[in-house]
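Hi everyone, sorry if this is the wrong subforum. Our group has a chain we'd like a structural model of before ordering constructs, and none of us has done structure prediction before. Sequence below.
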Amino acid sequence: MKNLKSVKLIVIHCVANKCNKPFSTDLLIACGKAMYGQCSYHYYVRYDGSVIPLLPESVQGVHAKGYNHCSLGIVYEGGLDANGVAKDTRTEAQKHALYELLKSLTHDYPDARIVGHCELPHVAKDCPCFPASQEYQDLQPSSHSDRSAD
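Answer:
Right subforum, don't worry. Here is the predicted structure as C-alpha cells:
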C-alpha cells in the first residue's frame, strides 16, 4: 500500500499500440499481470474518452522504474501510427478526458507534477509521444495558486 501523501508525480504513458487497432482493457491488465504480476497503471484512457480505473490510487503501480513508490500511472490507448511509428495519436475525446482526469488528480494531489514517461531520467523511449509536462503546464504545482477555485 502506498501513502497517498507520497504522490509526487503523475506519469503519462501510451500503450504503444497502432492507432487503427483497439487495445482492450482486459488485454492491458493481462499484459501487466504477465510482466509484473499485477496491473501496471491506475487509469486507462480509451479512444472514445472513457476513463477506466485499473488500480486503486493507494496501490503502487508498476509503470515507471524508480518512481512507482511516489507516482500514479495513467496510460492512453494508442501511441503508434498505423505503420507502427511513435506518434501522439490521442483522439479529441482522449485529450479532453485526460485533461479532466488530471485536473481532478491535481486537485487531490496538489504537489504532484505531471510528466510523460520519457521525461523521467534514464528513459529511452518516446512514451507518451507528446510533451506532457508542457501540455499540462496550467495544472502543474507552481500554477495551482494561479487557477481560480473550481
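For your construct planning: The CA atoms of residues 5 and 109 lie 8 Å apart. The longest strand covers residues 9-14.
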